[in-house]
């Protein structure tokens, strides 16, 4: 059976390429997740996922309770937004997001009660279709950072049968420890999630992937994998050598199954679903309680934070409130990140709300932020050697500046996942990811014409 | 609005590896030091003078040209030091010092800076300068002194005297060829930095340990030469060893063919590049009237480098499948 498939593993090892080893800085690994009390107000943007924005379903002055739907859309690629605290709607207006974009948002002022919405009840789920519906209603998006609506992943089309679920607990980004804490603190939910999903989606294999530098998590996950039950689902634990970006979807699929996701394709094209371990646990919790996605875990860390912590925070809480709760800054930060140091976004000020997909708030001093003076490319090949996608970033940079869409397509610019490995390793300190983004926009522009 | 201090915004990643251009160049310099010591020990203090003149004039020319071209000062990256060292290592100890300055001018100003500075030159500056000097001042460039340890009469390099048709051990016994041990420690005629195989190999180890170079080019270069020479000599090991140890082969294969800017970036390209260098070296040594083929081979492969990169372009992730799918579709249609 699929439990031991050395052939697949061997293939993955021989094919695996690229990546960089980064220092982990998991300062918060041993700190239990602390539940942050409800802030005075939350700001809930109507676009917290990849896809179509929601339309607010409440108006100024309305009273709302925790878990109540306050925004929804009838577009396919969208998930509803729920009130994360109880209180009164203060305004419905445009706000600035962490990535600099503007989006309409609902601001709620807390009544301090955290009253649960009365409509909340466990959904009835007996088959695949029910599951997809329930997951959409839960408002779940990938909790690992990308923010892709989870129900879409679970929507299996008959042409692309799915046989493998990969539960991603690799957490290869430095500093972030939310998935690790999830494994230690919510193993029950993870287990339920794994077996429920496997059963409902009629999966042949489940692979739980974790990096080998997390022995405690491995212990817990191993127990889950060993409880392989009579449903005939083969659940297996896969420990990966700790290397960035092991946790990237396409890398996971390759390591777990030996299958290479075609360029421009999704894991579903090779029969896989990749879900973050936090998302899996959330699904189990939602099926049991019916409480939608109104709070999430974040790691607050970096050398400027007084008390680095793992926090459970209502969605929409401002970064300022989060930092204040952790004791503020011990020294002046030059950079604040929403997300990890490799793929996160640098934000200009703390006055932005935490979104469903934000897994970390990091504050760095100049020293920790790793500034490097930019110098010309010396053609050393480190960027190419580091690229898990096998691209040659320095060439792509050249053609991106020339706006040569054809050559860029040939060079595979579009498969870049912006993991940052290339820019990390460049001795010339070149902002290669920026050039990769430029390259992609050049190709997209050309395709439009 | 309140005067809030804004935080720095830049593209991800927000952390960088500690490797810098200067650090890499420093490692190369360290790797070149043993060969410099060996050269001085073998050829005397004048070797040191040649090295010093080359390094100083390379750095000076670099500083001067970026000043004139109004570019940011670049001597801090130390690459000019390496060019100077490599140039000196490729010159005979008897070379007039003014020729060293001419060589440095060619290397830095013409080959490097006129093409846009570090990372932009299409050929290795030190090698091109050596070839220019070789063509312009043939006799000065081939005026090899025998090592100090032997008597200081002008003597040809082993490659020049090596009679490929006769028995090697007989030639050694006659005294026309140095012994194999002398070849390894570098007590033989030749350019300053090329004779001591042991020192060059130590440098090579340093570069590999520090991950400055990938072993692909040196291995494929030396491997190709070894295999072809073995075949040519009908498995005469001594003959092959002489070929590997003589001339500038080791210096070239370890330090010059691996130059980042003028060698391919991808693994397959590096392999092709190394094999190409090896092939050309063997062809030149065996079939041309030139005694030494390393510089010419590397220069030719430098020129071919963009082409090699193009033909050996690596397949990016997910590429193979896409192509197969297309073929399958075409087949179905
Ligand atoms: S950011 Fe893109 S080009 Fe750079 S290493 Fe990652 S996938 Fe490769
Ligand atoms: S890592 Fe930087 S210096 Fe090296 S080839 Fe890539 S872009 Fe050029």
How is this structure best described in words?
The complex is a heterodimer of chains A (449) and B (333). Chain A has 449 residues and is α/β, with parallel strands linked by helices. Chain A has three domains: 190 residues, Rossmann fold, CATH 3.40.50.11540; 160 residues, Ubiquitin-like (UB roll) (Roll), CATH 3.10.20.600; 67 residues, no CATH class. Helices cover 29% and strands 19% of the residues of chain A. Chain A is globular, with a radius of gyration of 22 Å. The termini of chain A are far apart. Chain B has a single domain, classed as Orthogonal Bundle (Ammonium transporter fold). Chain B contains 16 helices and no strands. In chain B, helix 1 runs antiparallel to helix 2 and helix 1 packs parallel to helix 3. The chains are: A alpha/beta (449), B mainly alpha (333). Chains A and B meet through strand 15, strand 16, helix 13 and helix 14 of A and helix 1 and helix 16 of B. The site of one iron/sulfur cluster has 16 residues of chain A, from helix 13 and helix 14.
């Amino acid at each position: 059976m699929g439990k031991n498939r050395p052939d697949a593993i061997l293939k993955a090892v021989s094919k695996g390429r690229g990546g960089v080893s980064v220092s982990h800085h998991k300062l918060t690994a041993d700190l239990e997740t602390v539940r942050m009390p409800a802030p005075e107000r939350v700001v809930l943007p109507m676009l917290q996922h990849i896809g179509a924005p929601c339309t607010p379903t409440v108006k100024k002055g309305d009273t709302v309770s925790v878990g109540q739907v306050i925004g929804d859309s009838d577009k396919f690629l969208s998930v509803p937004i729920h009130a994360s605290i109880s209180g009164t709607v203060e305004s419905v207006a445009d706000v600035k997001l962490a990535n600099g974009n503007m989006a309409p948002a609902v601001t709620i002022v807390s009544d301090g009660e955290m009253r649960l919405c009365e409509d909340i009840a466990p959904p009835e789920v007996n088959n695949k279709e029910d599951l997809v519906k329930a997951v959409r209603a839960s408002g779940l998006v990938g909790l690992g950072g990308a923010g892709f609506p989870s129900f879409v992943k679970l929507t299996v089309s008959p042409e692309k049968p799915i046989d493998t679920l990969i539960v991603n607990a690799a957490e290869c980004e430095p500093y972030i420890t939310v998935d690790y804490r999830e494994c230690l603190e919510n193993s029950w939910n993870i287990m339920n999630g794994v077996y429920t999903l496997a059963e409902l989606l009629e999966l042949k294999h489940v692979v739980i992937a974790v990096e080998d530098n997390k022995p405690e998590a491995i212990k817990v996950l191993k127990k889950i994998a060993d409880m392989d039950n009579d449903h005939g689902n083969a659940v297996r634990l896969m420990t990966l050598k700790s290397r960035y970006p092991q946790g990237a979807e396409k890398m996971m699929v390759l390591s777990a199954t030996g299958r290479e996701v075609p360029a421009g394709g999704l894991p579903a094209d090779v029969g896989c679903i990749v879900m973050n371990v936090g998302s899996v646990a959330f699904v189990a919790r939602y099926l049991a309680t019916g409480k939608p996605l109104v709070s999430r875990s974040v790691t607050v860390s970096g050398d400027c934070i007084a008390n680095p912590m793992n926090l459970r925070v209502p969605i929409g809480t401002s970064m300022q409130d989060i930092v204040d709760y952790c004791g503020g800054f011990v020294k002046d930060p030059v950079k604040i990140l929403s997300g990890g140091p490799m793929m996160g976004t640098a934000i200009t000020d703390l006055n932005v709300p935490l979104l469903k997909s934000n897994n970390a708030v990091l504050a760095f001093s100049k020293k920790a932020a790793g500034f490097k003076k930019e110098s010309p490319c010396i053609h050393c090949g480190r960027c190419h050697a580091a690229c898990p996608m096998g691209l040659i970033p320095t060439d792509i940079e050249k053609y991106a500046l020339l706006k040569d869409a054809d050559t860029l397509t040939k060079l595979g610019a579009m498969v870049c996942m912006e993991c940052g490995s290339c820019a990390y390793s460049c001795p010339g300190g070149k902002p290669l990811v920026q050039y990769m983004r430029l390259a992609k926009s050049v190709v997209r522009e050309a395709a439009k014409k | 609005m309140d005067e809030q201090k804004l935080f720095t915004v830049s593209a991800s990643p927000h952390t960088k590896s500690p490797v810098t251009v200067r650090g890499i160049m420093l490692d190369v310099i360290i790797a070149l030091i043993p060969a410099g010591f060996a050269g001085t020990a073998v050829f005397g203090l004048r070797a040191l003078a040649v090295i010093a003149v080359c390094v100083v004039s390379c750095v000076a020319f670099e500083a001067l040209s970026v000043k004139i071209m109004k570019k940011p000062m670049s001597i801090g990256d130390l690459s000019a030091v390496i060019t100077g060292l490599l140039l000196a290592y490729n010159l005979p100890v008897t070379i007039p010092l003014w020729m060293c300055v001419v060589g440095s001018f060619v290397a830095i100003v013409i080959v490097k800076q006129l093409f846009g500075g570090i990372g932009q030159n299409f050929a290795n500056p030190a090698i091109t300068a050596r070839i220019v000097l070789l063509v312009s001042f043939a006799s000065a460039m081939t005026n090899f002194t025998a090592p100090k340890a032997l008597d200081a009469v002008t003597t040809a390099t082993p490659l020049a005297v090596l009679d490929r048709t006769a028995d090697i051990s007989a030639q050694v016994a006659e005294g026309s060829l140095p012994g194999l041990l002398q070849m390894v420690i570098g007590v033989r005629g030749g350019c300053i930095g090329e004779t001591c195989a042991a020192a060059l190999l130590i440098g090579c180890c340093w570069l590999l340990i520090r991950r400055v170079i990938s072993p692909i080019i040196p291995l494929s270069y030396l491997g190709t030469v070894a295999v072809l020479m073995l075949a040519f000599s009908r498995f005469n090991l001594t003959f092959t060893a002489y070929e590997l140890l003589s001339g500038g082969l080791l210096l070239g294969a370890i330090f010059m063919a691996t130059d980042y800017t003028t060698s391919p970036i991808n693994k397959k390209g590096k392999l092709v590049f190394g094999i190409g260098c090896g092939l050309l070296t063997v062809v030149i040594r065996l079939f041309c009237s030139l005694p030494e083929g390393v510089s010419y081979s590397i220069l030719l492969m430098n020129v071919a480098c963009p082409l090699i990169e193009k033909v050996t372009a690596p397949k990016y992730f997910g590429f193979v499948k896409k192509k197969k799918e297309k073929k399958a579709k075409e087949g179905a249609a």
